[in-house]
Amino acid sequence: MAKLIRGNAVVSDEWTLVALPVRDEPVKKQAGKAVLFKLTGEAAATDAEVAGVGIPGGKVIVPMSVWLGRHAELTARLAAGQLGVWLDSFEEPETLAASLHDINAFRVIAVNFPKFIDGRGFSVGRLLRERFGYRNELRAIGDVLRDQMFFFKRCGFDAYALRADRDAQDALAGLRDFSDPYQGAVDEPRPLFRRVARSA
Amino acid sequence: MYRYDAYDQRIVDERVAQFRDQTRRYLAGELTDDEFRPLRLQNGLYVQRHAPMLRVAIPYGLLSGRQLRTLAHIARKYDRGYAHFSTRQNIQYNWPALETVPDILADLASVQMHAIQTSGNCIRNITTDQFAGVAPDEIQDPRPWAEILRQWSTFHPEFAFLPRKFKIAVCGSREDRAVILVHDIGLQLTTNAAGETGFRVYVGGGLGRTPIIGSLIREFIEWQHVATYCEAVLRVYNRYGRRDNAYKARIKILVKALKPEVFAQKVDAEWAHLKDGPGTLTQAEVDRVSAHFRAPAYATLPALDADYGARRETDKAFSAWARRNVHGHKVPGYAAVTLSLKKTGVAPGDATADQMDIVADLAERYSLGELRVSHEQNLILADVRQADLVAVWQAARAAGLATPNIGLLTDIVCCPGGDFCSLANAKSIPIAQAIQQKFDDLDYLHDIGELDLNISGCMNSCGHHHVGHIGVLGVDKDGSEWYQISIGGSQGTAAALGDVIGPSFAADEVPGVVEKLIGTYLEQRTDEERFIDTVRRIGVAPFKTRVYGESANARKVANG
Ligand code: SF4
């Protein structure tokens, strides 16, 4: 099982992540490297795929496309605090926010980083926190590694599903790479020049 | 110049510790090549043909004598006694061992320097005019703004993994010496009708495979909002820039695909949320940073130093140097001096450790302890008294730094190319050297007059060949090295991209082709015309005929 870091602690995860069916898509390659990224706004799944996703009982984190497509079926679980949702890096938080009255009805929102070099999720995190007022757990999932931890935290993430082969203690150290960053972000909205008196 | 406070220092120190640990984990096998690559790139470390290449940031091209001495020390201790000044006001070491890079970074941090974000898909070193602060045509000093944006962009958590690299340039003068129109964001300092300071904002300029001149997306952004506005541009780009194709991932492709007006609307919509937020700059912060760039206490001097004037009349060699390498200064009696790194036979932009030490001495003795690096790959002493020019010239001449060719044909801008760079299609340095040799006669060179010649070893265009009056580009044909030549490009306010004259040439043909282009110009020019003016007036055709006319048939065989 993947290790979950919540805040500054390694915890066991009571949520089940529901995946979309893996599609047999041709792997696009460029200069020998796989380029899989979808453009922002592309659909994650077809209607049929969404309909076919099996959702287990208990606390579940479902794909955003499943939440959008099967709203009615999931409302009761949402009300019971048993529902989370995850966005892929190319999905838009605007769509999620527009799909329900109170985004804080979700207990967990997760953002997928299909590869750590796909930095869209950082913007998604900030938008969820700063624009859409999301206050509950914001979890980074996917290619989640130690050397991006500091950036995750600054962009509003407070839970990290570390890649299974990585050491959690090491990853926790990554949260402390820098003491006083220059610019404002979610964890500290004020830039350095508003936080401290800097003398010339 | 900007001096670090405890906060700035801690950030670079923590970076050294972070990179030391990343390197350790990589060497211990805890990080894969793919995982380490973006991390090392964001610290300026490439893996090149022979060894890693380390690119060190020289923020907006400004250095102290002490910093330059440390760069010389690094060249001696960890490299082969020299280094290369790049076209983006950085310095590059071609031979450091990976294991020693953390120590190099620690040495850099001891003099308030770093290699942060000098490569990789992030916001790069912010560049500006090498004559900032002293140029007679300056509207406002761009350096405080470049420093403010440097701080804003350093480890920006949202923009560490952009679709591609991102370059910002700031220009504060009337003539654009910072080539802002070929940057991802180009900021032109200006004032509005009420006399308030702000910026004209261009986006989506760039060279490379798809050269494009930047589009104006905002006529005026008040200074308070420049960081939040840039943040909005970056956010739109981070979210919507293409990540499925490395060749289409720069912001210029997004701007073009959306149309600049639509891109501007998206930025405005995003910015509406950020405007007046905590990222808004304060007068106190601008004052704090600007204080570091306050004009030094200049002496009151006559506008023309008598001895200097006399020497120019009587000493031909000095006068040739003064004409090309000495530039105007906004303060009477002072001058800016370009030390040429374009001596024939030396790779353009290369300097030895000993030369760096000498330049550091010159800066300290004659130029208030500071110097600048230009994107044309030369070094500049910005605050020299006219009375000291002879002494500076003599010392520079002894050190091989006084070639009187600034702005002339042999002041070639040239990337490291196939000798060092693993992306290259072809070598570039030997081409530069062959051209310099052909045009080594100074009188002839001065007669040809102002001419920008730029060479890139591949389409990545690090040598900015598109904006050279003559541009040379290395291309690969069936595994051998060929060179495509363009004319009519220019940088500056009237930036334009050159036109390719025709099929490409073998390396040994290039100097001859340049000679034919020059020959055509010399025949066709009117009195005051520079090469570029003649090209603009008569077009590419006469040049083409001259180059291809005589050997058209042979050429067909050679190039298929
Ligand atoms: S232009 Fe090409 S060859 Fe030259 S330095 Fe850039 S990437 Fe290397």
Compact overview of the structure:
The complex is a heterodimer of chains A (200) and B (560). Chain A has 200 residues and is α/β, with parallel strands linked by helices.
SSE map:
The complex is a heterodimer of chains A (200) and B (560).
Chain A: E1 3-6, E2 9-11, E3 16-17, E4 29-30, E5 33-34, H1 47-52, E6 60-63, H2 64-69, H3 71-79, E7 83-87, H4 93-98, E8 108-113, H5 120-131, E9 137-142, H6 149-154, E10 159-162, H7 168-174, H8 192-195
Parallel strand pairs in A: 3-6, 6-7, 7-8, 8-9, 9-10
Antiparallel strand pairs in A: 1-2, 1-10, 4-5
Chain B: H1 6-27, H2 33-41, E1 45-47, E2 52-56, E3 62-64, H3 65-78, E4 82-85, E5 91-93, H4 101-109, E6 127-128, H5 143-153, E7 168-171, E8 185-191, E9 197-203, E10 215-222, H6 226-240, H7 251-258, H8 260-274, H9 283-291, H10 306-314, H11 316-325, E11 326-327, E12 334-339, E13 350-352, H12 353-366, E14 370-373, E15 379-385, H13 389-398, E16 413-414, H14 429-438, H15 442-448, E17 453-456, E18 470-477, E19 480-487, E20 499-500, H16 510-524, H17 531-538, H18 541-548, H19 552-559
Parallel strand pairs in B: 6-7, 7-8, 16-17, 17-18
Antiparallel strand pairs in B: 1-2, 2-5, 3-14, 4-5, 4-13, 8-9, 9-10, 11-12, 12-15, 14-15, 18-19, 19-20
Helix pairs in contact in B: 1-2, 1-4, 3-12, 6-8, 7-8, 10-11, 14-16, 16-17, 16-18
Iron/sulfur cluster binds next to loops of chain B.
